[in-house]
Amino acid sequence: MTGTKAPHFSTLAVHAGAVPDPATGARVTPIYQTTSFVFRDADHAANLFGLQEFGNIYTRIMNPTQGVLEARVAALEGGSAALAVASGHAAQFLTFHTLLEPGDDFIAARQLYGGSVNQFNHGFAKFDWRVVWADATNPDTFRAALTPKTRAIFIESIANPGGIVIDIPAIAAIAKEAGVPLIVDNTLATPYLCRPKEFGADIVLHSLTKFMGGQGNSIGGVIVDCGTFDWKGATHRYKTLVDPNPSYNGMVLADAFGPMAFALACRVMGLRDLGPAIAPLNAFLILNGIETLPLRMEKHCENAVRVAAFLERHKAVAWVNYAGLPSSPNHALATRLTPRGAGAVFTFGLKGGYEAGKKFVSSLKLFSHLANIGDVRSLVIHPASTTHRQLTDAQRIAAGAGPDVVRLSIGIEDAADLIADLEEALDVVA
Ligand SMILES: Cc1ncc(COP(=O)(O)O)c(C=O)c1O
Question: What is the layout of strands, in order, in the sheet containing 81-85?
Answer without folding.
Answer: 81-85, 221-225, 203-207, 182-185, 150-156, 105-109, 130-134
